[in-house]
Amino acid sequence: MQHPDLDTVDWQILRLLQQDATLTNKEIAYHLNKSVATIHERIRRLKEQGYIKKIVALLDRKMVNKGLIAFSHVLLNDHTAQTLATFEKEVSRFPEVMECFQMTGTFDFILRIATSDMDAYHEFYRNKLATLPNITTVQSFFVLSETKSITAYPI
Questions:
Q1: Going along the chain, which residue ranges are E strands?
Q2: Is 33 inside any structural domain?
Q3: Confidence of residue 62 (pLDDT cuts 50, 70, 90)
Q4: Would you say 116 and 67 are in contact if contact means Cβ atoms under 8 Å apart?
């Protein structure tokens, strides 16, 4: 379902930027047969309205020495608002934690953790994650290979 504030051109801009955020306004204007000023204004509006959260460079994790990815499932010992908020606040401070999702089901959270190797993960686990209060269980799964990894939403 498309958002009523956006028209076809807005969606086309979002698709193009998801594929290549280095495109200039001029290049986007050329692709969409619009003026550069129109594209500039639309992108500014899309940012203001929160459709575009930020524009970043996606790095090759192996090239920056983050070759080990773990998905860690975390179970907390209670589920008060304070406990959940404290866990989210504390785990968000760890640079190794790339993503943190609160989940339904057996575990409360799933973390995507990037480290250089198993020794670095072990140090992260012992000296950071395991020191947080109210954790009952952490079950980690390590990525052997990456078949698909995209950041673009199908819109």
A1: 68-76, 97-102, 109-115, 135-142
A2: yes
A3: very high
A4: yes
CA dist 96 → 57, 65, 91, 108 (Å): 18, 12, 9, 19
pLDDT digits (tens, 9 = 90+) for 25-40: 999 999 999 999 999 9
How confident is the prediction for the chain on average, in pLDDT?
A: 95
Q: How many residues does the chain have?
A: 155
| Number of domains, the chain | 2
Tokens standing for residue 112: 């995507």
Q: Is residue 101 part of a domain?
A: yes
Instruction: Enumerate the β-bridge partners of residue 142.
Output: 70
Cβ atoms 26, 35 nearer than 8 A: no
2: confidence class by pLDDT, cuts 50, 70, 90 = low
Q: Which residues form the domain of 129?
A: 68-142
43 and 74 co-located in one domain: no
